[in-house]
Automatic annotation (TrEMBL):
<protein>
    <submittedName>
        <fullName>Spy/CpxP family protein refolding chaperone</fullName>
    </submittedName>
</protein>
<keyword id="KW-0732">Signal</keyword>
<feature type="compositionally biased region" description="Basic and acidic residues">
    <location>
        <begin position="87"/>
        <end position="104"/>
    </location>
</feature>
<feature type="compositionally biased region" description="Basic and acidic residues">
    <location>
        <begin position="134"/>
        <end position="155"/>
    </location>
</feature>
<dbReference type="GO" id="GO:0042597">
    <property type="term" value="C:periplasmic space"/>
</dbReference>
<feature type="region of interest" description="Disordered">
    <location>
        <begin position="66"/>
        <end position="104"/>
    </location>
</feature>
<dbReference type="InterPro" id="IPR012899">
    <property type="entry name" value="LTXXQ"/>
</dbReference>
<dbReference type="Pfam" id="PF07813">
    <property type="entry name" value="LTXXQ"/>
</dbReference>
<feature type="region of interest" description="Disordered">
    <location>
        <begin position="26"/>
        <end position="51"/>
    </location>
</feature>
<feature type="signal peptide">
    <location>
        <begin position="1"/>
        <end position="23"/>
    </location>
</feature>
<feature type="compositionally biased region" description="Low complexity">
    <location>
        <begin position="26"/>
        <end position="38"/>
    </location>
</feature>
<feature type="region of interest" description="Disordered">
    <location>
        <begin position="131"/>
        <end position="162"/>
    </location>
</feature>
């Protein structure tokens, strides 16, 4: 009786663990359809750049920078340029990876994102240090509404209406 029970428990455990291995991922939607934000061009590098330029022009106008702050502004906007996402990993390549390889790949991607976020954070802090108290107040107000981001490129989830 004990060996039957042990066999059943072991079989159930193996089935639960192996279930993910047999699950098939859905086919990729054609040409960006079905991807969040795809209908608004959120992944299109040209549109990302256009949105970034508009936001930076708006920010610059509202901050009313002095000629002495132009160098810091240029460095700030250069560091915040939106970076297009690299190519997605092929589903077949992902499926061929072992679990430890997938974990390592996800850690590597996370480290890259964190390094980019750290770079933007330092650029923002450096620029912020050059602002007058009134400009800092304006920057903080705009930042609380999402203007401190350097464009829509994957830093968190932002939901838009429409």
């Amino acid at each position: 009786m004990t060996s039957i029970r042990s066999s059943l428990v072991a079989t159930a455990l193996l089935a639960a663990l192996a279930g993910g291995a047999f699950a098939q991922a859905p086919a990729a939607p054609p040409s960006g359809q079905g991807q969040p934000g795809a209908h608004r061009g959120h992944r299109d590098p040209a549109q990302m750049q256009e949105r970034f330029q508009r936001r930076m022009a708006d920010l610059k106008q509202k901050l009313q920078l002095t000629p002495g702050q132009e160098g810091a502004w240029t460095e700030f906007t250069t560091q915040l340029q939106p970076q297009p996402r690299g190519p997605r990993m092929d589903r077949d390549a992902w499926a061929r990876m072992t679990t430890p390889e997938r974990i390592d790949r996800m850690r590597s991607l996370r480290a890259e994102r964190m390094a980019q976020m750290d770079q933007r954070a330092e650029a923002t802090k450096s620029f912020y240090a050059t602002l007058t108290p009134e400009q800092k107040k304006t920057f903080d107000e705009l930042g609380s509404r999402g203007m401190r981001r350097g464009g829509d490129h994957g830093q968190g989830h932002r939901h838009h209406a429409g």
